[in-house]
Amino acid sequence: MDLYRYIKDHTTPQGEALDWVxxxxxxxxxxxxxxxxxxxxxxxxxxTEMIRPKRILELGTFTGYSSICLASSLPVDGHLDTLEIxxxxxxxxxxxFGRAGLSGKITLHIGDCKETLRRFNDTVQEDLLYDMVYxxxxxxxxxxxxxxxxxxxxxxxxxxxxxxxxxxxVYGDNVPGDRQTxxxxxxxxxxxxxxxxxxxxxxxxxxxxxxxxx
Length: 214
Prior knowledge:
Blueprint: H1 2-9, H2 16-28, H3 37-51, E1 55-59, H4 65-72, E2 79-84, H5 90-99, E3 106-110, H6 113-122, E4 130-135, H7 142-150, E5 153-162, H8 179-192, E6 197-202, E7 208-213
Parallel strand pairs: 1-2, 1-4, 2-3, 4-5
Antiparallel strand pairs: 5-7, 6-7
Helix pairs in contact: 2-5, 3-4, 6-7
């Protein structure tokens, strides 16, 4: 905790809209620890500014914190599509986008992530491929998400996957057999063995996999 507090104290503050989303997440949900937070949020902003994507796809909106971080770093003509299964969060998410002044740059898709991705694949056009994908949805399904998003990403584009260290469970002596841990461990192995990509795990928070499609 002391390390995180020190890093946060030496990181650019998150701004009013993100402050509001963080407060509302703590008040209105039971899973506030799922929030990206100020340090990872600023990291996502800066990575986005470096990659300079025009089109981003996000898997797992939650309350919209990371969506705002990603979309706020897009160019004027950029756009973010974000996928969330929990329709009870829709009002909170959309209000946060409005407070951040980003309603016109983000499209929220409510529904099952895999079903939405299959629909995207059915209608994909080469000139509308994504420059960047951020994965932070159901950990059990990371391997399936990877298969479904790969064809949606342009050559030279990036896939970022959150929580890939999973509290250290994936690299311990006795890896737990639960579906979430197994899903992440299998995803990590798939990516590392995939000759179509270059990749590195950044030990930020709970692990962020940075993957570049060749």
